[in-house]
Amino acid sequence: MTPLQFESQHAAAWQELETALTPPSGKRKPTPADRARIAALYRAACEQLAIAESRSYPVWLIERLEALTSRGHQLIYRQGDFGIDNLRRLFLVDFPRAVRAHRLQVLIALAAFAGPLLVIGVLCYLDPSAILSLQDAGSVEQYEGMYGDPDGPIGRRNADSDWAMFGFYIRNNIGIAFQCFAGGLFFGVGSLFALIFNGAAIGSTAGYLTWRGFGANFYPFVITHGAFELSGIVLAGAAGLLLGHALLVPGRRSRLAALEEAARGAIVIVYGMTAMFAIAALLEAFWSSARWVPASVKIGVGAACWVAVTAYFLFQGRARRASGEAP
Amino acid sequence: MPAPPSAAESRLDTRYAVETPEGIALWLRPAGVVPRFYAYLVDVAIRFLFFSISFVFLSLLGTFGEGLALVLFFLLEWLYPVAFELSSGAATPGKRLLDLTVVMDSGLPITPAASLTRNLLRAADFLPSLYAFGLLSMLFRHDFKRLGDLAAGTLVVHAPRAELLRGTPPAAPARAPAVPLTARAQAAVIAWAGRVTRLTDARADELAEIAVPVVVPRAMGGDRVAALVGVAHWLLGRR
Fold this sequence. Notes:
Chain A is an all-alpha fold. Chain A has helices at about 5-20, 30-55, 60-75, 85-100, 105-125, 135-150, 160-180, 190-210, 215-250, 255-290, 295-315.
């Protein structure tokens, strides 16, 4: 068979596939019958490409078929299902499971964050001038207004509104968390640094404010959103350490293969961690700073949040033993 | 099947083959630093314009608008590429302008997890400043992956073009070859005829001189190029 015969024999099918692959601007959803037809045309085009190549047909034929099949491949193998079920499964099962599966990295991240937090906190409580070696005098001075003022909202300068602060928490805190994750790509060093640095900064602030006698304002403010924010930053670091760990100890795989596999696990933690930061931003902007909520209520709700978050990571999404199958 | 590239060829050629379940090879053409840089510039400009215009309107809403503006900034900064990569074109507007798309390195369409991974790890690519690590990684690899692409297993490729009619030989009267040609020889003549329009006359004639004595010895004196193009037409099926 000559190339021209081959082309004219199949031209109609190729044309049909080409139009099917470029949907009209009306964006009509393809029916199941359309999809079956596209799949059949695609498989036929693949077969014809193989034939054309084995017979060394001219380049325009092969390139046309290559373009056609590669576009068909993209369409047919597209994963169209980002549905609500997947999202539910992510938060009910996959996220807490991923955290438990990588408990080594989570515990290292926790130590790297909570260790400096406690040590520096106690240090700054005993010797408040130590905070000046971690933070500049200007921001320390601002704490007076943020936590010392008995009337205005807690934890911010008076001029800032709830909404503006919500935007700030989203942009700033989640941005920092993402960077903390990305830093893991440098053998985990970036994530470790971010964890230690943030732990030390938070510890020094807490220690200083306690010494200053603002504890009654500060702790009710941080306890509620802290349940989500502090565990969120630990998880962001853990996700980063997962990447770093894969690069340092790839086991019996190449470092690149180990990294790709670790990233697939880490991204599940990143999904969950981002949601936790969003919750934390909502709470911090609209609940934690509110004066109309008595401190005792905040402590109670905050403690409940801590219990809930801990229980979520320990128990949520475990396979039920009685039925013996995954929920 | 085209012959697999030799070691020396594959060191130069950045084309990248993946096999599909249908048993054919998809040829991906990874995009290098320069087109991706231009695409990035376009995306930065689009985001900047979009944010500036929204900011003007949002600032009319007072502090509520200020908060929304910050959320919008966050979304544009981190999730703008993810949203576009998961839409049907699998590329941001900047990449679309330069005909690039993002795919998995298995040739499959990009997954949500991979898209988020590669875009969050942008922060690592950006270090120590101005995408220096990303640039180094792209320059050292022949598939031009930046660090985020390495972890996510993704590739930025030149999109396959739909209209391609290159390699059609110019018009000439068809004539039969004097001897039966092997499949390889037929392919060579057809490929040469497809390139004739892009060669200088002298070079086309020089190449024709190699084939004509065997293929159409009667045309030795006349226009060798036209004679050989005629043979190509005959081989293609115009008889």
